[in-house]
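Internal ticket - ligand job 177, zinc ion:
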Amino acid sequence: MKEKKWCSGAGSLAVPEDIKQETTPRICCCCGKPTPDGSNYCNWQCTVDLAKRNGGRVITPNGLPIVCVRADNAMLEHEHADHPDYKFPVTAEYVGAPVELPEWDCSLKPQTQALIYTDGDVALTLYECCFTIWSVHNGLSLGGFSYWKAWRLTEESIAKIRALKPSVPGPGKPISE
Ligand SMILES: [Zn+2]
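stdout (structure tokens):
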């Protein structure tokens, strides 16, 4: 049987109706070799290589590895690394009471969030298009996306945020009287 390309990845066209996932061997959208597990790419490197070949922009202001390839072929060190006020990634961990679940809830795994703003007291992050505000003093969530559960920034992330000097000065002395 002739191999047909099964590809819905970056820069590809829609999958034709007559291609059946169950019966068609999949080949890598980048290098054309059969994929080991029926996915669209051999590995992450092929995913990135195809985005580069398609002319995607590399958005890694901190020089970190590419972890996200968008549908427009942009390659980012964080999904929100193209936000105009993006600083660097920080890590939030779940610190709530142990959840009695038979299986680990993957939504409680540590999250890599994008630091957008800090004034030294609070920090604003972006994760999956949602904002969370955090105390830079104890690292706890103060409101937003991560507020409904108990989340905290890691000590390492808090230290990095504290070390960041605000690039825009504040309004100066508080207004009195
Ligand atoms: Zn490949």
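Auto-summary: Residues 1-13 have pLDDT under 50 and may be disordered. The radius of gyration is 21 Å.
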